[in-house]
Every structure is written in C-alpha cells, then in structure tokens.
C-alpha cells in the first residue's frame, strides 16, 4: 500500500485556498482531523478530502420543508459560531513558552478570549499583524544604527499604524558552543574563522537580525562565514545541532542553552522581548485582559519559576508609536 500523503497546515491552506489561521481554527473546532509529529501539526490528505466531501454532501442535499428549516437554522448557527470565533479568538505570534502560559491565562480571564498561537519569528509576526492576520506579535529585533530594540522596526513595519509595545522580559543572547568551547568562539569576528561552522536562524527571526546587524557594523561579509546559509527554526533546534556536532556555533537565548546537554553559552548582549498590538485595539476587553495578566503576581511568579527572564519591567508600556 502506498504511504498516505501528509500535509502541513500551510499546504492545506494553499490547497483549500484559505488562510493558515483558518486551518488552525478548523482543527481546533474538530472539523478537520490532525495529529502532531513532535511539535509540528500534520494532516492526512484523506482527512482533507473527507472535510471537502462533508461540505459538498451538505450542499447537495434536497430537503423537504421541515428539513429545509432545520438545515437553514444549522447553517445560520454555524455562520454565527464562525463569526464569534473570528471576533473572539486572538492570534498571537511568537515562539517563547511565556506566550503559551499567557494564552492559558487569557482563556480563563473573565474578559479574556480564546487564542491561537502562530510560532513565527519577529519579522514575520509584525508582517502578520500589519496585514490583519494576527492581533498580537512578539519581537526582539535589534537595530544597529540606534543600538535599540523593537521600536524602529515597529515604526517601519506598521506604517501609518499606531501601535502599543508592551515589555515582557529581558533575555540574554549569545553563542551556543560545545561544552568547553573548543574553538574558543567569544566574539562576532570569530564567526569568520575558516575552521568555524555556523548553524543560522531563519530570515526575520530576532537572532538572525542580530547577527546580520553586527556583521554589517563590523564590515564582515556573510559569504565568508561557513554555514551562514544553513537555517534552523528555533533556539532549541540550533542548540541541539551544536550539541551533536552538526555545527561549531549557533546564536540564541540563554534559556534554550540550559535545556540542551553538552552546550555552553557565551553571553553577547541583553535583549528586550516585547509584545506589540495595534493601539486601536487597546481598550477592547481581551487586550485589557492581557495587560492585567502581564501585571499580575500569579503570572510573574509562574515565569520566575521557569527562570531565564529578567522580569523587572514586565507589563510596562515601552512605547506607543
């Protein structure tokens, strides 16, 4: 028997000509079967066909008068439910575990809402926020010209849009190296060494932008860095690659280094990890709920228990652009 084709949510979205967020909503409501491979969601082609045929069968029914009223009522209820999902659910972009905790608190808050998580990097998150595909995005984007975090990018990527930047945490960024740092990688210039191999992050992630900004500042040609084109999509994946000898060095936050065996962390700089949403949404109940949660003692204590964060400014408004 031929192996059944499996699809990613994006591939399903392309096939059905809908957004990826709609695919996640279908999965969350149980309308479309899915399963996880590690942390990745996968959907069998047979389940996509079953979903398509289910809607097609309903459309082809020729009911009698009573059945017609029932079907019309069900269609109306379904439409209302889908509209409520659209109105109530918040799409939050970002990869840190603190956002999973925030989503749980938000669902339980009296003024809260259901939330859908989109595990994309900082640049992609701002892009989705600007295009209305997400309501909140987290960023840790360093600007080399101003030596500042996030504000310049929010201004440029949300043109003519007033946005609120709320501080979550300060995190340490640095190099992941093998235990004992056998290649003695301690500064950005070391990445250009001929015997050094890098594992990079994907374009638009905070760590990738940090690297590119420093290379530009130092006048280093990325084409001379071994492994610059090799990309991985998370801090943990980068640290794991270094740990098993797939690269000499990677870039990420200190917390991930503490979760992978055989890794040392070389501190480079402190970053600001912050939450962004449109100012026009600030007074809406779910957004007020988020601010309330971030400033609550329970939320702070839970993050302190995880460790790896400087929470001294948690919940404070950094800027309104």
UniProtKB/TrEMBL annotation:
InterPro entries, per this entry? DNA-bd_dom_put_sf (IPR009061), HTH_17 (IPR041657), PBP_domain (IPR024370), SinI_DNA-bd (IPR010093)
Q: Which NCBIfam families match?
A: excise (TIGR01764)
Pfam families tied to this protein: HTH_17, PBP_like
The PBP domain extends over 105-295
Q: Which GO terms describe its molecular function?
A: DNA binding
Originating organism:
Alkalibacter saccharofermentans DSM 14828
Q: Which SUPFAM superfamilies match?
A: Periplasmic binding protein-like II, Putative DNA-binding domain
Domain Helix-turn-helix span(s) in chain numbering: 7-54
Protein name as it appears in the record: Putative molybdopterin biosynthesis protein
């Amino acid at each position: 028997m031929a192996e059944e084709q499996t699809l990613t949510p994006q591939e399903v979205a392309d096939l059905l000509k809908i957004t990826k967020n709609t695919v996640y909503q279908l999965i969350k409501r149980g309308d479309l079967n899915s399963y996880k491979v590690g942390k990745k969601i996968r959907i069998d082609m047979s389940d996509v066909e079953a979903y398509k045929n289910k809607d097609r069968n309903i459309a082809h029914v020729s009911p009698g008068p009573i059945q017609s009223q029932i079907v019309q009522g069900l269609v109306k209820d379904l439409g209302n439910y889908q509209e409520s999902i659209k109105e109530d659910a918040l799409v939050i972009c970002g990869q840190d575990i603190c956002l999973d905790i925030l989503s749980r608190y938000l669902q339980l808050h009296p003024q809260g809402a259901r939330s859908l998580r989109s595990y994309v990097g900082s640049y992609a998150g701002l892009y989705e926020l600007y295009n209305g595909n997400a309501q909140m995005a987290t960023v840790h984007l360093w600007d080399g010209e101003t030596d500042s975090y996030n504000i310049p990018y929010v201004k440029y990527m949300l043109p003519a849009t007033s946005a609120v930047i709320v501080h979550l945490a300060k995190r340490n960024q640095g190099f992941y190296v093998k235990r004992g740092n056998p290649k003695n990688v301690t500064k950005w210039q070391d990445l250009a060494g001929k015997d050094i191999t890098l594992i990079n992050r994907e374009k638009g992630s905070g760590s990738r932008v940090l690297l590119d900004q420093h290379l530009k500042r130092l006048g280093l040609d990325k084409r001379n860095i071994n492994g610059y084109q090799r990309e991985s999509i998370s801090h943990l994946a980068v640290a794991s690659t270094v740990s098993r000898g797939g690269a000499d060095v990677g870039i990420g936050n200190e917390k991930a280094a503490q979760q992978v065996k055989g890794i040392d962390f070389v501190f480079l700089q402190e970053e600001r990890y912050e939450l962004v949403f449109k100012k026009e949404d600030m007074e809406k109940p779910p957004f007020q709920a988020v601010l309330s949660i971030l400033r609550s003692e329970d939320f702070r204590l839970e993050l302190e228990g995880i460790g790896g964060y400087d929470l001294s400014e948690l919940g404070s408004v950094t800027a309104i652009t």
